Write a sequence for this structure.
């Protein structure tokens, strides 16, 4: 089994639930925790940040996801459509999903948005 440590993308813990009914919480601590293999795919899909371990393929998938979110937010910021953002100036997750082609958590979107200086755009 490939051991991988993950942490939540923001300051809040990241709940991870499987259709089998199994659940776990990935904390926002810098050192992260070992995530059992059955949860790894869903944790990555929810935006968990890889802290340690993982194959080159996994690292590439995570990087590709982060870049796709960044590029989508850049397009949304440049476009200036009010529908792309909520009333409080945060990225609209429905619109972000439409642009990226996959769901993005609020924590993930807010973190990348802040990195892009999006808070000043709101």
């Amino acid at each position: 089994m490939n051991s991988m440590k993950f942490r939540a993308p923001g300051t809040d813990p990241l709940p991870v639930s499987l259709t089998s009914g199994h659940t776990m919480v990935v904390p926002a601590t810098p050192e992260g925790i070992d995530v059992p293999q059955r949860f790894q795919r869903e944790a990555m899909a929810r935006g968990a940040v890889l802290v340690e371990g993982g194959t080159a393929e996994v690292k590439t998938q995570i990087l590709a996801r982060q870049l796709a979110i960044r590029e989508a937010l850049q397009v949304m910021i440049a476009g200036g459509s009010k529908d792309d953002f909520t009333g409080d100036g945060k990225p609209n997750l429905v619109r972000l999903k439409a642009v990226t082609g996959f769901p993005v958590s609020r924590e993930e979107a807010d973190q990348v948005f802040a990195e892009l200086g999006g808070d000043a755009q709101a």
